[in-house]
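Q: Given only this backbone (192 positions), what sequence would you predict?
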């Protein structure tokens, strides 16, 4: 928990009261590999911080699982629309590795926003970070060929390629596992 509070404090200095309130409300959870934190059709009640592990968000399209993002140590995990609007989620969140998480409920987070204005600054900075990541993903889907999306992943998120099963990476890139294997093979044969 100290790592999370120190990270938040590094974004903007937190008052002692804010630090104490966060420490009081943050809860710890060990999540085994394959466990769902959120199932589609339910409301996302908590926002999670990954201390250790790897999670993915996915949804179904024409009965196929589509991975929409992956989050690692130091990242925040939430079904965005479901959590912030407190509405039913169309996506699920699953642990891809045994994971250690800290979390806080929607209601508790809203209370911290009201009581500690400095925490609104922290939340804004974090929201900007994840909004930019979302925009980068949308840009790559709209503007890049599959091989370019794979190259972008190699350059910007290489650790995902070693930790995420290929079938999930393929769905994230918007291609079949066979196409992913072909692109990966072609890239590995290029002179370095």
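A: Predicted residues:
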């Amino acid at each position: 928990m100290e790592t999370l509070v120190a990270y938040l404090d590094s974004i903007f200095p937190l008052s002692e009261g804010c630090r104490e309130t966060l420490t009081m409300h943050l809860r710890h959870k060990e999540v085994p590999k394959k466990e769902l934190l959120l199932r589609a059709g339910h409301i996302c009640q908590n926002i999670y911080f990954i201390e250790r592990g790897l999670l993915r968000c996915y949804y179904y399209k024409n009965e196929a699982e589509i991975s929409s993002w992956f989050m690692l140590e130091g990242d925040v995990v939430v079904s965005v629309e479901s959590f912030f609007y407190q509405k039913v989620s169309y996506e699920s969140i699953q642990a891809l590795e045994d994971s250690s998480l800290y979390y806080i409920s929607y209601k508790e987070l809203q209370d911290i926003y009201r009581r500690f204005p400095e925490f609104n600054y922290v939340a804004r900075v974090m929201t900007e970070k994840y909004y930019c990541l979302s925009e980068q993903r949308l840009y790559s889907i709209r503007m890049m060929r599959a091989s370019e999306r794979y190259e972008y992943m190699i350059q910007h998120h290489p650790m995902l390629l070693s930790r995420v099963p290929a079938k999930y990476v393929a769905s994230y890139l918007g291609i079949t596992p066979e196409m992913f294997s072909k692109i990966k093979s072609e890239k590995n044969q290029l002179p370095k």
